[in-house]
Amino acid sequence: MNNENVTLEDLGELLSAPCHLQDLDHVVLVQDTTQYNFEAHRGRFSADDADIGVLGDNRSLGLFVHPTLGFDEATGIPFGITDLAIYQLPEDRELKANRGYTKQPITEKHSYRWIKSIEDSVAKMPKVKNFTAIADREADMYELFAHPFDSRVKLLIRSAQNRKLANGQLLHAYLDDQPWQGEYELEIKGNKKRCDRTAQMTIRWSTVEVVCPSSLHRLKKDHPATISIQAIEVKEIEAGERAEGEEPLHWYLYTTHEVTNLVQALQAVEWYVKRWWIEDFFRLTKSQGFELEKSQFSSGMALKRLIYLVYGEAIKVLALRQGRTLTVSDSARLVFDNVELLLLKALLPKLEGRTASQANQNPTNSIAWAVWIIARLGGWTPRNINVRPPGVITLLSGLKIFKQRLEGFKLIYSQISP
């Protein structure tokens, strides 16, 4: 991790290598920012370490990481990290007001990462026919919608601002005047803040003309005066039981996809729900998996190298979790190469039991078949995978054991292969 010959550029190319091979009809790009807190290890770092800084509270030592994950829209399986940015904030940085932040062009702001990540991701996948770039409220920037992306790119962003429209109204007031146009059910996955439940949702949409905000007037020559975009509002009307203090779901979404009917509106919402996958990915890298924040390395650069390596493994674990029931032929190749598939086949007989219920009944080389093997290595007891599927911790444990055995297998394979 402290080898200066190992550059972040090289690690980044290795991480995004699977992306260059993609030849898909539709790729979903999900991006977000997370932070890793190393305050508990402050004493390990040099005071002049330029590769680590403070987090949003301006006190805690840490790093920000902004990844973009690429998913095959048809299967929901992630195939790689399409882009990754790691950055830190200096402790002695000036306040936004003193830096003239509002006068800066977007390319000089940290928020430019939302635009650059899409551009860099798309450039790596020339064979992909369509992209949907999804992000949460932090990406609700006029500059993002005004940016001249590749024609294959469509945006789907959750609204953070009640924006002014060309007709003089604000977005929320305008949509309040529109009729609700459909209802549907949404399965809510519970966590510490919300309950598992089936929420009853209602939906409406409209084409709106958003006005360039006054904060960009100084840069008006760089942005159109208005932008035409589709606005979708979804609201929870019946929720069953919610956790104490839990607010009902209520989203405003912007999209550059065409939305003229209920099917298209519901499709946009379904795509947006996939943004939660990146939250699962972040949890996997923290206390529920790789525990990056417990690292004992004593330099910011070593931590950055570690993040690249951990992310490469974490995306595989997420792919296994997503593909637990995917029996499509050869889908395991989304995660494993030829040598790894050979090892999986070699391990299988010793992991199966004597009865049919203890056998791997999935098609060979499907991702469900591979998940069954990795889960068994991780201690999972064979049973109906739809009733009690292996979780990410079990899959992570199994993948670690698999990697250990892979090293010896490669040595043997190199001696016997032509």
Automatic annotation (TrEMBL):
Tell me which InterPro entries the record gives.
Answer: RNaseH-like_sf (IPR012337), Tn5_transposase (IPR054836), Tn5p-like (IPR047768), Transposase_Tn5-like_C (IPR014737)
Query: Which stretches are annotated as coiled coil?
Result: none
PANTHER family in the cross-refs: TRANSPOSASE, TRANSPOSASE TN5 DIMERISATION DOMAIN-CONTAINING PROTEIN
**Stated name of the protein:** IS4 family transposase
Q: Which organism is it from?
A: Neolewinella lacunae
The upper taxonomy is:
Bacteria, Pseudomonadati, Bacteroidota, Saprospiria, Saprospirales
